[in-house]
Amino acid sequence: MTNSPQQPVYILPENYSRQIGKDAQRTNIMAARIVAETVRTTLGPRGMDKMLVDTLGDVVITNDGVTILQEMEIEHPAAKMMVEIAKTQEEEVGDGTTTAVIIAGELLKKAETLLEQEIHPTVIAKGYQMSADKAQEILQNIAIKVDINDEVMLKKIVTTAISGKGSVSIKDSLNAIIVRAVREVAEKSATKTVVDIDNIKIEKKTGGGISDSELIQGVSVDKEKVHSQMPREVKDARILLLDCALEAKEAGSDTQIRINTPEQMQAFIEQEEKQLKDMVDKIIALRANVVFCQKGIDDIAQHFLAKKGIYACRRVKQSDMEKLSKATGAKIVSNLKDANESDMGAAGMVEEKKISGEAMTFVKDCKNPKAVTILVRGGTEHVVDEVERAIKDAIGDLAAVIETGKIVAGGGAPEIEVAKELRKYAASLGGKEQLAANAFADALESIPRTLAENAGLDPIDIIVNLKAAHEDGQKWAGVDVFTGEIKDMEKMHVLEPLKVKTQAIKSASEVSIMILRIDDVIAAGKLSGRGPQGPGAMGGMPEM
């Protein structure tokens, strides 16, 4: 009996791709590292900008890490995980996105060297996890406690956050605006202070210069008054917020109205007018002189309101209504008949102003507002967008400091200090995890090294001098990118929230561990409800 040749067994459709073992690890690590290298040159006050151009020719110029990564059309699945790091950092803190991505890329680069030494990925992952936990502990121990009522200290944190952005030339004027805005919306409870940054509205308008940006102790609404005869400004405003239309009730779709005589027609019109006049009379009885309506306002109602000198805006967005409620203390009324004095809000001034040719309504001088507006001005749209990103970073930093009450110095000082302590910790570990812990320490040093490279300094000299300073007990010794010297960053007032560093290390270590543990990349037909995907969906991976 002759043996027939063995038939090949196919478990995946023809032309589907699969990468196994070291090939899969190498491809994933390379994709993640390329993402990190893309944003690496933007780090620090001397970082460079990126110009992003889409298919329509629209341009974004920025050095904000998360903006760059979100705008890029990234396909590779491992590279997309790096983008997720930046998004998480942005959502949790609002700043430090580039730092998190660089650390993740460096952790994978060091892991690749260990993999070539035949160290198993799970051993590296365990060593990285132990190091990440230890790094958190070290950062908590070296952090500086800060008085959240110390306005001077808060301004120094803002200065550090916006250094390197297009707005650096006028950081003093932005400083005061950002600090006041965050302190206005901060809400104290018995145990802690919470800052909801959604209560800070950022309104962008081109025209003027960045120094013309201002803080409005209230809310700006992108609406104009509904009637030309209404006053342009109202002082000592009593504000009514309506979530119901100031319009006559419409008849149902199946309702029939039979009118046989002109008198009946006239009576019908007068009845509608009476409904609208009753609504306006109710507003007058509440002594309201400003009305913001989320729905429509009938032309006749507009006329009655204008005759009484009442300022009104219609079709105001729900998000703006909620901010108006927090700023003025008014309650949003869903039924005008049920409105009473306690539902009213107050503001020192409500006025209509034209900004860049567009009429807007400003609700100003609110007492103890829990929602404020930062009006951002700038010569061009690109400038305004970059200033907005700088302000968002600074607001995130301040919110993190106010909520945790802890900061660290910048300039690469905390990374070098943590790396020094991690090497001591690594010496206490047995087995190959020690190599992973040392690799983790090396990866953290990529931050001061990158700061030096972006400033045109010799990174080797800088790292050697930084290590020597930290061995001498100077825990806040960092690199001054403007002079190239090693200085005490705390004394130079280069300060960052502790949460920026803890979150960056946490996110970077988790993603690098996840990527390391992947040893097989298989083309899947359908995941989480998505349609069938061919090899192209694997991000340009070579076919096996």
Q: What is the tally of beta strands?
A: 21
Give the termini separation.
36 Å
Tally of helical segments: 16
The overall pLDDT, averaged over residues, is 83
- Name of the CATH superfamily of the largest domain: GroEL-like equatorial domain
Query: Which fold name fills CATH's third level, the topology of the largest domain?
Result: GROEL, domain 1
Percent of residues in helical segments?
40-55%
Low-confidence stretches: 529-544
Radius of gyration: 30 Å
A few lines on this structure:
By secondary structure, this protein is an alpha+beta fold. The chain has helices spanning 21-40, 65-71, 77-92, 97-116, 121-142, 151-162, 171-185, 262-285, 299-307, 318-328, 381-404, 413-427, 433-444, 446-454, 459-471, 498-516, and strands at 18-20, 50-53, 59-62, 144-145, 187-188, 193-194, 200-206, 214-216, 219-221, 233-242, 290-293, 311-313, 332-333, 345-355, 358-364, 372-378, 406-409, 477-479, 486-488, 495-497, 520-522. α4 (97-116) packs antiparallel against α13 (433-444), α4 packs parallel to α16 (498-516) and α6 crosses α11.
